[in-house]
Design goal:
Two copies of one chain form a homodimer. By secondary structure, chain A is α/β, with parallel strands linked by helices. Helix content of chain A is 47%, strand content 16%. Chain A has an eight-stranded parallel β-barrel with strand order 1-2-3-4-5-8-9-10, surrounded by six helices.
């Protein structure tokens, strides 16, 4: 395949669009604009159709402004089989508006099973990259790396997640340093020479971000937790490399639900929230 | 809901069927009987229909002999949306033949996202239980526990997996003992008073099984790695409680693919492989 490597495509998009914002598409029926809900049944299949309509509309509104789009697979799965058709439609539209995609499904399994998940992510759903859980070890991550390299895609391995309870295992001191730093070291090794193995590092741990940047100097970070989860633009500064690249900052609810469902101005509010998040991030990028 | 708790249903089935075997349904197009492949297209949708035909047939052959059936979600996902219709059909048939089901999808995410995965597992796909990855911590597991308790279902948390590379993180020494033992301690706490939070513990680590049984005296173990992955019946003895219960031993490829695709006697071979696995396990149960 002749297209550039994943990290080059990512860097080029962050440069040309001038910001590192990732718009997370986490569709939930009760938060959708009432106007959209009114056109669909309150069933799994109806939800899937409503999620498609909403997601495509969000992409038409702001997909050209940002480098990356991240659908959250769980909300699509909760619709039943039709939800995956919606997920695929949104990933396809993201590509059409020139954004790279991260399928946030946090998959992790071994051997041929991991290969099946990787094939689903890249070949079936059409994502450019996927989030992967490292707990199962080397042979759980390698099939994702192999599949990503075949299509010049990438992956983002969970290192330090943004949730309040993330420390239960990630913060245990293992052989002198926290578990998440061991995972960071492995990610740094897997990424070397290819640039396609990224790290998920939450914005809710600002003091750790700079340390993790030191452990993974060239790795691309996907930083969740900005916005609705409490992380500010100032909190994510440590994620960037000195060249201003190397980090993708995600906001989901802050961008796709800055309105009451009955608000007729929901489209304007999505655009305004996106522009505001972009400006905030531009003000802290190195 | 008036049905008995998950651990009681599990214990009752192991007692009445007289064995702890879990039949894993990991359908792969190239391993299916040629007779089934010949009736379907070599496309994602065709694979899904073939997986349905094969999976339902396996359940009709041996579903009444064993207490538990475990579909591996990755292989269904690799078919596209129709794969999930196949997965749901197999889970439904398993219930009809009186077996409990474990949806092996190794999900893990936080807060409302974890709730969406849990709702998908129990309410949408209809599984009795689901495998869960613990790396994200307390608030990644709790939504699965809450959803399981609503339907008197259960979950199995990955503690020590059966793959050769599982030690990379699981074996790190954290505060004086391996990471997987910390996870075991958390599972033991989550399970207390309810009996619905199990542990995935690989048969490929026989010496650790007895130690893990000591750390989780009342927890139900799901033990993969028996059969094709190299674990023998003798290797799993440490998984059982003294009363002979407490462990479900999975075999996937060894039971569903003991034949060459062109073998016309594939049905007899599935039944024979199941009976042989049951006899082997009965010989080592306490």
């Amino acid at each position: 395949m002749s297209r550039p490597a994943f990290n080059e495509r990512l860097a080029e998009l962050v440069r040309t669009r001038g910001n590192p914002l990732c718009v997370g598409i986490d569709p939930r029926w009760e938060l959708l604009p009432a106007a959209i809900r009114g056109r669909h049944d309150n069933t799994g299949e109806g939800h899937a159709h409503a999620f498609t309509e909403f997601g495509l509309h969000v992409l038409d509104l702001v997909g050209h402004l940002v480098p990356v789009i991240k659908p959250q697979s769980a909300f699509f799965e909760a619709c039943g089989p039709a939800g995956f058709t919606a997920q695929a439609a949104i990933l396809k539209r993201a590509a059409e508006v020139g954004a790279l995609t991260i399928l946030d499904s946090k998959r992790g399994d071994i051997a041929s099973t991991a290969t099946a998940y990787a094939q689903a992510s890249f070949a079936v759903w059409g994502a450019d990259s996927v989030t992967v859980n490292p707990y199962l070890g080397q042979d759980a991550v390698e099939p994702f790396i192999a599949a990503a390299r075949e299509v010049r895609g990438g992956l983002f391995v969970l290192v330090r997640t943004s949730n309040p309870g993330s420390g239960l295992f990630q913060n245990l001191t293992c052989d002198g340093r926290p578990l998440y730093q061991h995972v960071a070291g492995a990610v740094n090794d897997w990424n070397r020479g290819h640039g396609d193995v990224g790290a998920v590092v939450g914005a809710t741990h600002p003091r750790e971000l700079a340390g993790l940047r030191g452990l993974m100097p060239d790795v691309w970070f996907l930083v969740p937790g900005f916005g609705a989860q409490g992380g500010s633009a100032a909190d994510v500064t440590g994620a960037f490399r000195a060249d201003g690249l190397g980090a993708i900052i995600n906001s989901s609810r802050g961008i796709t639900y800055p309105f009451h469902p009955d608000d007729p101005a929901w489209e304007e509010k999505i655009v305004a929230a996106t522009q505001r998040a972009i400006a905030e991030l531009q003000s802290v990028m190195p």
